[in-house]
Amino acid sequence: xxxxxxxxxxxxxxxxxxxxxxxxxxxxxxxxxxxxxxxxxxxxxxxxxxxxxxxxxxxxxxxxxxxxxxxxxxxxxxxxxxxxxxxxxxxxxxxxxxxxxxxxxxxxxxxxxxxxxxxxxxxxxxxxxxxxxxxxxxxxxxxxxxxxxxxxxxxxxxxxxxxxxxxxxxxxxxxxxxxxxxxxxxxxxxxxxxxxxxxxxxxxxxxxxxxxxxxxxxxxxxxxxxxxxxxxxxxxxxxxxxxxxxxxxxxxxxxxxxxxxxxxxxxxxxxxxxxxxxxxxxxxxxxxxxxxxxxxxxxxxxxxxxxxxxxxxxxxxxxxxxxxxxxxxxxxxxxxxxxxxxxxxxxxxxxxxxxxxxxxxxxxxxxxxxxxxxxxxxxxxxxxxxxxxxxxxxxxxxxxxxxxxxxxxxxxxxxxxxxxxxxxxxxxxxxxxxxxxxxxxxxxxxxxxxxxxxxxxxxxxxxxxxxxxxxxxxxxxxxxxxxxxxxxxxxxxxxxxxxxxxxxxxxxxxxxxxxxxxxxxxxxxxxxxxxxxxxxxxxxxxxxxxxxxxxxxxxxxxxxxxxxxxxxxxxxxxxxxxxxxxxxxxxxxxxxxxxxxxxxxxxxxxxxxxxxxxxxxxxxxxxxxxxxxxxxxxxxxxxxxxxxxxxxxxxxxxxxxxxxxxxxxxxxxxxxxxxx
Length: 676
Known about the structure:
Radius of gyration: 26 Å
């Protein structure tokens, strides 16, 4: 933040401003971000707390998996491998409440409320912006709990070439030798894919043109996880404890191979007009450890066209259209046959007008259409059908610098959905700055439109039970309030936030007919509150930084029952030390993610006086921590070598389920990066 906003006649204030400005630079708080307001704004001036992860932070730590990266940066965030793929939990909220964007655009391919996270390539990331709290006034449905925007790299020099590779040993060797005539040779080779990440990027800027081509490859082997403990169920209603036999059947985590090609092209014929185009082709083969001659094959094709026109230094118009189509196939290994079983398509045209520095205000207005279609066998039992939905939205936001110390941001979004009609989402934020202190207040309403499956599902699961959608569903809503304080000096950056989330009209699946039918209904309300703190310290040693963050969650029980699994206390810690010996540059990193224990209630059956009855039992997952260590050596500006260890202390969960750690054990890796 600029020191000139402080009173000029105060020597003490001038001294504070000098140290604060040094801290802003040192802790990268002058980074320009776009997600919180959809217009460029310095990090210290954003109306809501925004966390930024830069390319430099990613590269020196050898991080090539977006899940590992976000877990190390966001307290309370956990990814788990489940039957349908990967699930996310962020401070008590799942994937259906957290919106992932790539360059500000949504991702198709939702499965179990989560997208395909393998599409997110950290090697092609310029920065990641994380906005926690409801952001539906700007981003619409699903942005109830926050927005994670992955902003990709753009060429900045006349010519750039970069390449990197990262390799690690197999997690589990399943087949040591495969006979060329073996009928299952493809399966046996596929589940032992090497743990390998590689990417190449070529681009440049020439006069009015910008172009970049990138290719990324990832592969990982499949592995098994075994329970080490047995499940203990305590039924408080009857004061009965039941210890079950330890499960001997392992949990399988699939291996995969992905390929992704991205082409970006930009043309600037004048100072006023910029035209851009981007397209990405992605494929993934997913292999489990079941020798059934079948595997999962996924493809995605996405693309966008954009045009920016500046009427003056203050007024600009942006038009864009984006499309994303995600396909899933069942593939037969020996027959080379693929059958389409799922297709999710999104199309979103958008028009935005920005008026900047108009009477100390930045006004942003826009309109967009979101069209989504889904082809699946979940709508009509025994056959594949397509269902679609549309929503039309207009939104406006006014960012007003009332005084050099006070800013107000107000926004409103009006959405009309073809299934449920109109919905309104307002927001209001205030920022008060007087170095070294910044205070922020934020109120926002969020919502989540019912998914196509929640609206139209009519699915018979192997004759065991039925799932029915509900065309009369209303959107889930929440009211989000937060108050935060920031302090910055030359050596310390500290931030603390308290927040509360009021949810209403939550969409739940209710079991009826002796648990043979599940019906979607708007049935429940809930309150979720918590506190978040982040401290970054430079203790006066050149190149040394300490990062500490913690989140405390206070979920509200419903009728004395806790149905959702929350880690009440979680945190991250990271120590980073960069130094130079002669012309050799080194960076050392040690990071730890701590996830608190979970206690939740599950409806089960227990024998009481010779009769089996239904009752809730307590289930607990213990707290645990994951540690990672890396060392990066840069002998020259264009070349970097990174060595590291993931899961440093080889942690394994005692019982494997949706609420425990499902990653592999300790893994060492090496990475090389070269750029011109």
